[in-house]
Amino acid sequence: MLRRLTQISVQQLVRKKSTAACSSKDKWDLFAGVLVERLPVVSKTLNPLEQQFQAMLSHVEYEKSLKSDFELKNERDLVQTELIKQGKMQVDLDDTVAKQTAQDLKDAYTEELKKFQLAPRTTADDANNKATSTDRCLEDILYLVVKQKLGSQQHLVLPQGQREQGESMRQTAERVLREQCGNEIQVVFYGNAPVGFHKYKYPIKERTQSVGAKVFFYRASLRSGNVVVKRSETSGTYEWLPKEALNQKLNTAYAESINKFLI
Amino acid sequence: MSLLNALSRLSLQSSPVATRFLHISPVLCAEPLKKKKKLDPQVVKQREDRRKKKIEKQIRRLEKNARQLKPVEELEVPLDLIDNKAKRERKLTPLGTAELEQRALLKKEWARYKHDEKVADFQIIDRLVQSQNKALEELRRESEELYQAAIEVDMKLLPVSVKGPVATPPIKNYVSPDGDYVHQAMKWE
């Protein structure tokens, strides 16, 4: 056991040294990216099996239940009307006017319930396919992507920016989000550790100082607000996309890195 | 010369006069002691006894109540429900074998489905952990300092509040109607 441990530690030491030697050769720019997710607002629609099972459970529950006071009252009322019809019981006119049967109450309750309108599970933004709204695809997690100028071209990516001297990666991530998306958006960052990683190399002409960029992604969940776009910037478009749409719109290599830490 | 002598004599004479008329009050740093009241030892004993009895009484009351637990009303079935249980039972026709068989099959299918779901969940968790480890490893390669900053515990995350998904989204600007509130809080000594 001890020998095994020492072996492992030696291996790790060797690995660390070798990587240190590697990193000294070429310099990489450090970037922080932010994965902002809008968590689902409504629960998932049940699939056929789930619906079947739910129906069975509710039936079992009905079978095991005992009759409520209301049901007993209803039965009593039914018996009474039957008796009155047969003429075995005398009807007290004053009493019947004041008395409400259980059935009457039930009808009144259902009438009241019908008046109440539940909010629909799909919104107007769903119908309009308005990708900039967070008030759509309520069942799914929505991820924020922005159009950013990387090199000479514009790309659709998670908001990212380069690290400045003296910052930790988490601080960079927070600053980047504020710079890219304005102050209105309120998020909660999940911890100080990055959740994902992506690296890409610059075109050969531009590899003067560093070879490429290493992006460290931080996960954050949206609490309130939305992106505020600065009009002066040309790269100001953003979208909230569910996972499937995200994979279609992103660059394949980038999407592959992102997919590793999407739920 | 004689005048000078006379003057000096005058000054000599005047000095005791001055001291007699200028008074300096002495500084008092303390107060004269008050005379201590002498208490009857019988009274003192009585007082102490009374205090002791009071405390003992309180202790006794606490001990008595310690064994009496506050009843949880919801856990006790009302007596009238127990009495007319037979009246409340539903008279349903027993399920046929076909129905029972179908239910058993559905339960089995459900177990398989939940198992697959759980496995998928574990796979997602594994993937996320792997991704995070990779990111941390890469960060350590770049700079040990940044890595140490990244593995610090974020105390701001607690306490966390999460609103779970609901069946239908909340209605915007909904004013909930006022109902009747019946305040029923029993007092337990």
UniProtKB/TrEMBL annotation, chain A:
<keyword id="KW-0689">Ribosomal protein</keyword>
<dbReference type="InterPro" id="IPR000086">
    <property type="entry name" value="NUDIX_hydrolase_dom"/>
</dbReference>
<comment type="similarity">
    <text>Belongs to the mitochondrion-specific ribosomal protein mL46 family.</text>
</comment>
<dbReference type="InterPro" id="IPR015797">
    <property type="entry name" value="NUDIX_hydrolase-like_dom_sf"/>
</dbReference>
<dbReference type="InterPro" id="IPR040008">
    <property type="entry name" value="Ribosomal_mL46"/>
</dbReference>
<feature type="domain" description="Nudix hydrolase">
    <location>
        <begin position="144"/>
        <end position="257"/>
    </location>
</feature>
<dbReference type="Pfam" id="PF00293">
    <property type="entry name" value="NUDIX"/>
</dbReference>
<dbReference type="InterPro" id="IPR033650">
    <property type="entry name" value="Ribosomal_mL46_NUDIX"/>
</dbReference>
<dbReference type="GO" id="GO:0005762">
    <property type="term" value="C:mitochondrial large ribosomal subunit"/>
</dbReference>
<dbReference type="Pfam" id="PF11788">
    <property type="entry name" value="MRP-L46"/>
</dbReference>
<dbReference type="InterPro" id="IPR021757">
    <property type="entry name" value="Ribosomal_mL46_N"/>
</dbReference>
<dbReference type="GO" id="GO:0005743">
    <property type="term" value="C:mitochondrial inner membrane"/>
</dbReference>
<dbReference type="GO" id="GO:0003735">
    <property type="term" value="F:structural constituent of ribosome"/>
</dbReference>
<feature type="domain" description="Large ribosomal subunit protein mL46 N-terminal">
    <location>
        <begin position="28"/>
        <end position="126"/>
    </location>
</feature>
<keyword id="KW-0496">Mitochondrion</keyword>
<keyword id="KW-0809">Transit peptide</keyword>
<protein>
    <recommendedName>
        <fullName>Large ribosomal subunit protein mL46</fullName>
    </recommendedName>
</protein>
<keyword id="KW-0687">Ribonucleoprotein</keyword>
UniProtKB/TrEMBL annotation, chain B:
<dbReference type="Pfam" id="PF09812">
    <property type="entry name" value="MRP-L28"/>
</dbReference>
<feature type="coiled-coil region">
    <location>
        <begin position="125"/>
        <end position="156"/>
    </location>
</feature>
<keyword id="KW-0809">Transit peptide</keyword>
<keyword id="KW-0496">Mitochondrion</keyword>
<comment type="similarity">
    <text>Belongs to the mitochondrion-specific ribosomal protein mL40 family.</text>
</comment>
<keyword id="KW-0175">Coiled coil</keyword>
<keyword id="KW-0689">Ribosomal protein</keyword>
<dbReference type="InterPro" id="IPR039145">
    <property type="entry name" value="Ribosomal_mL40_metazoa/plant"/>
</dbReference>
<protein>
    <recommendedName>
        <fullName>Large ribosomal subunit protein mL40</fullName>
    </recommendedName>
</protein>
<dbReference type="GO" id="GO:0005762">
    <property type="term" value="C:mitochondrial large ribosomal subunit"/>
</dbReference>
<keyword id="KW-0687">Ribonucleoprotein</keyword>
<dbReference type="InterPro" id="IPR019192">
    <property type="entry name" value="Ribosomal_mL40"/>
</dbReference>
